[in-house]
Structure formats: C-alpha cells, structure tokens
C-alpha cells in the first residue's frame, strides 16, 4: 500500500467526518435555540433507580480478567448451559433484562458490561478498545466462568464482537444468536457498494471526530435515549424508570468516551484499501433475529450472511426497531426458545 493512497483515503474519510461534524454542530445549536437555556444540562443522578438492582434480573458480580475488571449480572443455575449476553452501543447489561428473566429457568444467564461501559473498568487509551482485545475479553470471560464454551447472544456492537469470536475462536461458541448486527464482511462490502447503507452509517464517520460526539449526546438531559427507544408510533418502548436506568448509567463521569472509542479505534483505513481478509466460516449453529424497522441497517444483511455461516436460521421481527430485544420482547424470546430447544 502506498503512503499516497493511504493519505488520500484518510483525507476523504476525514472530510466526510468533518461534514457530518459540522452538520451535527448546526443541528445541536438549532435544537438549543428551540429548547432554551437548560439544553446543555444533564441532571445529576446520585442513586440508581431500583430497576437496576432488581433481583428478578439477577445478581451483580465482578470478574478480574488478565487486563480488565468486568461487571456482569447473572441469574439461574450455574450447572445449566451458559448463555452469555453481549450488548451494543449505547447500552449495558440492562439491555438483556427481559431475556435474563425468561431464560434463567433453563440456563445460567450472564450479561456483562463490556469494557468501558457501565460498572466495568474503563481504560483511558483508545487502543484499549481494539477489536482483538474486545474478542479476548469474551474468550477470557468464558474461561473465567469455568466453561469451555457458551451460547453467545449479541446485539449491535456486541454482535460485531460475537461474529468475530465465533469465526476466530470457534471452540468457545456452541451456538450463536445475533440481533441487528451485520456480519462484518457483509457490512464492509455493503458500505463500499451501497449509497443507501453508506448514508445510514453517517454516525460512524461522525464518531471519528474528537469531542463533538460526546458534546452532542450531552444535550437535553441525555435526550438521545428518549429518541432511540421508541416504536413505529414514536412511543417509548421502555418504562420511564428503565429510561432513568439508562440515563443514570450514562450520566456518570467518563461514560461516553470509551463507547465512542470503539468506533474510533476500529475504523480500519488500511483494511479499506487493501481489502481485509474475510472471516473464517462460522461453524456454530447461528440464529439471526432482525428488527425490520432498523433505521441504521439495511434489511438484507441477514440473508447476505448466508455464505459466511454453515447453519443459519433467520427470523425477521416485523415493526421491530434496532433495539429489538427490548422492543418486541415476546417475539424475540419465542424465537430464542425455539432455536435453543433444537437438538
Ligand atoms: C442446524 O442447527 C440446528 C439448531 O441447532 C440443528 O437443529 C440442525 O440439525 C442443524 N442442521 C444441520 C444441517 O447441521
């Protein structure tokens, strides 16, 4: 790869990022003028709402891995098969509460806060969020839970990690369940080949910039959560108290930079030019559950994953949004149960 080529692509990406950065600044300022003085205030929340401590979801625990201390919530009998839940952006273990409650009867359910999120440790350096390291966290966590393998259930950014773990560490994944997260190879191909997906992915470019992403989410008391957890009729899909759970967690100091660093660290320009190696074919039986109303991801991703997975089942959830496991709980849990009950 020539240096010139690298610099050209780097500049184009930076240009696109600056464009979206400018647009974001203007949008935020516009909303500020409309909303008034309190716009840049995030309420101080000293105590977590009760739902974050609800024993029905599980017990809180920590594990120290080689390089990181992770927080997780667990439920069910430790002798049952292990279901490990990996959340996306911008969430934490709480994203999986409905599944924890449902599957604790038949499984040992564990939902972690990924590094940099929630009550897990938050390394300061961007390079600490490299995809290689994020994969190792999952592999090491399974070992630390004294298991050889698990049923890995993942969403969004958690899905990026889980796709990679299932491909690169097949011995660790017995079954794979992915919700609204494209197979990484298909995502790269589509980002290159489809204007539609490219435009839907604008925030990935925005997130390459310093400061502006963090600044833009700290508006109107973390209004971002009021905007993303809504159904097709723009009604909140989680309770007010659950909303407070998210706002409590993400109002704490330093809560946003590590999650955004996932995007900053893993935007691979060198890989874009040279073409990255596609991942080894996934051997674990795999279920993709896909909320059809995802505004950030094209609906054909599940089918595009077929060549990359040996044994794939796809279940679409009509009217389900990106956060499908909280949006359409009954449908998602039924699909999960059906898949897990197969031999
Ligand atoms: C695919 O996976 C399902 C679910 O685990 C299993 O029931 C089925 O036998 C598998 N099919 C093949 C061809 O291996």
UniProtKB/TrEMBL annotation:
InterPro entries: AB_hydrolase_1. Coiled coil: none annotated. It holds the Pfam family Abhydrolase_1. One of its GO terms (molecular function) is epoxide hydrolase activity. The chain crosses the membrane at residues 12-33. Keywords: Membrane, Transmembrane, Transmembrane helix. Residues 81-327 form the AB hydrolase-1 domain. The keyword Transferase does not apply. It comes from the Eukaryota. This is AB hydrolase-1 domain-containing protein. It comes from Allacma fusca.
